[in-house]
Write a structure and sequence with these properties.
Blueprint lengths: L1 H19 L4 H7 L3 H9 L4 E10 L3 E8 L4 E7 L10
Antiparallel strand pairs: 1-2, 2-3
Length: 89
């Protein structure tokens, strides 16, 4: 009986810990903003001139590199769900 209670407690603790983790990055891609929407927000920046690269990162964000009117190279990461800039872990 004691072993059964310990096993049940362990399963419950594992399930709760899994649910407490951040949203799955794959879910961010499927349920988040479309790449075109993300790109549109970046293109609307006042200093945007042209896109160099846009890629998906498995941590749940789009990695974007663009250039400004004064030729500066900007690297930015945009969260797929919120559309806000994020710092990679």
């Amino acid at each position: 009986m004691t072993k059964l209670l310990i096993a049940a407690a362990l399963v419950t603790a594992t399930t709760v810990a899994a649910e407490a983790q951040d949203i799955d990055p794959k879910s961010r891609a499927e349920n988040g903003m479309k790449p075109s929407e993300i790109l549109a927000t970046v293109e609307s920046r006042e200093d945007f001139r042209y896109l160099e690269e846009m890629s998906w990162d498995d941590d749940g964000y789009y990695a974007i590199v663009y250039h400004t009117a004064d030729s500066a190279r900007v690297e930015i990461n945009i969260d797929a769900l919120s559309g806000e800039p994020v710092q990679p872990d």
